[in-house]
Amino acid sequence: MIRTGLIxxxxxxxxxxxxxxxAIDGLELAAIGTSRRxxxxxxxxxxRAVTAEALIxxxxxxxxxxxxxxxxxxxxxxxxxxxxxHVVVDKPLTPTTAEAETLIATARTRGxxxxxFHNRRWDSDFLAVQALVGxxxxxxxxxxEAHWDRFxxxxxxxxxxxxGAGQLLDLGPHMLDQALVLFGMPEAVQGDVVGQRGNSPVxxxxxxxxxxxxxxxxxxxxxxxxxxxxxxxLHGRGGSFVKYGLDPQEAAMRAGGSVQDPRHGLEDPAQxxxxxxxxxxxxxxxxxxxxxxxxxxxVAAAIREGAAPPVAAADALAGLRLIELxxxxxxxxxxxxxx
Length: 339
What we know:
Blueprint: E1 2-7, H1 11-22, E2 27-33, H2 37-43, E3 48-50, H3 52-57, E4 63-66, H4 73-82, E5 86-90, H5 97-110, E6 114-117, H6 124-135, E7 141-147, H7 167-183, E8 188-194, E9 205-212, E10 215-222, E11 232-236, E12 239-243, H8 249-254, E13 273-276, E14 282-285, H9 293-305, H10 313-332, E15 336-337
Parallel strand pairs: 1-2, 1-4, 2-3, 4-5, 5-6, 7-10
Antiparallel strand pairs: 7-11, 8-9, 8-15, 9-10, 11-12, 12-13, 13-14
Helix pairs in contact: 4-5, 5-10, 7-10
């Protein structure tokens, strides 16, 4: 068993990491670094609640998972790597590329895994999109659009509304990661990043355009949209595919559902996407079963069997570089080449 320590027991720790770790053969959730000892005792009575420092120093902990506010990712991951642990870090890997590069170098020097938690590669809808793109049914794809919107007009006291956070660092890493999985690095990027709610200390709207020759990839997110835009819209020489609705795993896990439920990760057929062909005929494309457990199964295989990690740290670094270029592009009002 790979004895695993989780640092952070907020939303990410309780709804995502703890239940996923607990569900994987070969991983043992041994300790949780948090001040919420009562919450740990209620949810996982067999798991020790300790400080983050004690967890990192524990010689029996082999894998450390960091699920804490963005500004703490670098220091906690760096300390865990220095202590000889394998490390999983929630997105964003770090708020800056400079910190990410340092972590990657430390992991390489220490001979340990550094794995970004880009779980959205195993969303039901993205798996369907990936399969459709790979099938070639759309022909050459000329426009790819992804939207991820919310309607939260009021500012909150959550750390995601504070320095080191914002919509682009919250959802941007996932959306960019999916685009990079499909199309690789673009030639150029143009960003529009702004805070639209009054007195917002962080951005709450962004539109990023990635340029690939004649193809355009447009990623957009806002906290001020009440009517759903398509989650995915792909337009190619062979037709169009449009898909509404989000993968159901997050909602189920936040509501306390079990990842072991036989229907976990299955999308409501009413939300399946529609392929429209040039002659006007249509075909419903069923979404695949989403399964975030595949991420942690991949982590276990990488540690014990030497398999490739489920997500490479270099992939997260590529996304962070695009985020920084997008911010620069927004500030300067121009398209910037990707070096």
